[in-house]
Amino acid sequence: MVEFVTINGAQLAYRLAGPANAPLIVTLHGGRGFGDHKSDFHAFLPLSPDYRLLSFDFRGHGRSSRTEPYSFRQLVEDIEGLRRHFVGGENPCIVCGGSFGGFLAQQYAITYPSHVSHLILRGTAPSHHHEAEAIEVLEGRMHRAPGLSTRMLRDKIFGQFDSDLEFQLIMYAAAPLYSESFNADIALGRNLDTVFYAKSHNDLYAEPEKFFDYRDDLSTVTAKTLIIVGERDWICPPAQSRVIASLIPNAHLEVIQDANHSVHVEKNAEVIGHIRKHLMRPAAIS
């Protein structure tokens, strides 16, 4: 059941599963302006017998309140507020972020290194430079999404939408690119069930947010880090995960074959297996 908690003045929608005294895993969803917690909660629910799983909608996303501002810094402070609320004190949590949520996970681990015991990154990138690579990948896979153009990716998905409706239509056109097992009927249902809010997307793609770059700071991350990426990931290609793995001390990288950006859904059992193994490793923080 979805519940709500007030963090930094915003009402955040969340779901919680697992034993109250177990280590807390906070999942951070992808999708600037259109993501929500549902996919991550279901994908990582198999961990809930042994861990306390917290999945939530960022402010300006899903069922959370449209409380401004929409910035990377504010969302990172909301993550910290949730940690304090559900864990308390200086006790660390496990952070699991994918795509845009992976950007935030990196920034959180850099900003609050002692508050993250284990870091799990899925299909993400260390800087805005992944956009140029994604455009190149799209040009080679245009047949997969004939309703999408390079301009729509560059100027809209990586830029500014004129309306919520334009946002919704373009993301439906892009949907075939996100999975190696695309189902048009399922994609339509998900699109209709998704909240598209151009204002939060546009703010999170405005300067300076658009030009995020963590590469100079990733060496300061102290959490035990696992990076998972699908070999066919189009929007955050595997080369981006390799960069992260090369910069975070002792990070471990898993490239999942025959999987795309939705690797945690497409290859769920394999991903859960890697995460379980990773969480067995002692945390860097006592």
UniProtKB/TrEMBL annotation:
Pfam families: Abhydrolase_1
InterPro entries named in the record: AB_hydrolase_1, AB_hydrolase_fold, AB_hydrolase_sf, Peptidase_S33
GO biological process: proteolysis
Native source organism of the sequence: Aspergillus oryzae (strain 3.042)
UniProt keyword annotation of Nucleotide-binding present: no
Keyword field: Hydrolase
One GO CC term, this protein: membrane
A GO molecular-function annotation: peptidase activity
All copies of domain AB hydrolase-1, residue ranges: 23-267
Signal peptide region: none
Family to which this protein belongs: Belongs to the peptidase S33 family.
Residues passing through the membrane, by range: none
Protein's name in the database: AB hydrolase-1 domain-containing protein
